[in-house]
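Can you please make up a whole protein chain along with its backbone structure tokens because I've never seen that pairing?
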Amino acid sequence: MEHRTFGASDNQFPILGFGAQRIVDEHQCTEEEAIRIVNRAIDEGITYFDTAPSYSDGQSEERLGKALRHRRNDVWIATKTHDRTRDGSWRLLEASLNRLQTDRVDEWRLHNLVTMDDLEQCFAKGGAMEAMLEAKEQGIIKAISVSGHTNPKVQLEAIERFPFDSALVALSAADHFIYSFAHEFLPRAVEKGVAVIGMKAMALGKLAPWYEQALRYSFSLPVATTIIGMETMEQLEKNLAIAKQFRPMSDTEQLDFLKEIIHLATPDVLRWKASEWMSGEWYRRD
């Protein structure tokens, strides 16, 4: 697989990253199968793993920890805090380390900042940023990150306020048409040396009929890696095959693809951007 530099750092990762949100009972993935999938991914060269304490009440982290118990030094682990306070974030990190069976996390993210108010809470006195800076100073984390699905202006403001090492943002082809992180956020992030990790590549499955094109679109962007949620070995093998034979989309190919899927730019499909969801609990769970 093609490898890319991780922002301003010397780290490099393959274009296909592993989204561990789905290796859980909720997605009909058993613990035994989860461990098999993760180990197969590492054997095939995947080194970037993303999880969060909110994914199935910690089961994602727990299973990732069991799978990586003897391979910790082979991978990069990113997890998150959905708490906006210093103390709450520290509690989450301590629990994450326990479930992941490790003494360190390579990358720690502010999870899904939807509004400017979310951002303000994190940067306020006693906010989550204090925990992040303390954890980095203590050597518990390496990289400080931010994530978001909804409004690229929030993440733009975040990287202007602080030199985040990375940002995890929605970069599916369906996201291309409205509140586009590809248009509004990605160029500035690249300019500032922020590593960008793509997510939502399959638009919650809505791009499944265009599977290879959907992945090629996301891989063709100037991202460090793109995480794909995988709950079966079949999905992993399919994604590996596409990543291994990846060639960037030409402008003509991209335009033709976008014409085919523009009808998907609706609130029902892009739920993570729809105004009726912006203050709802759906965002807090994702």
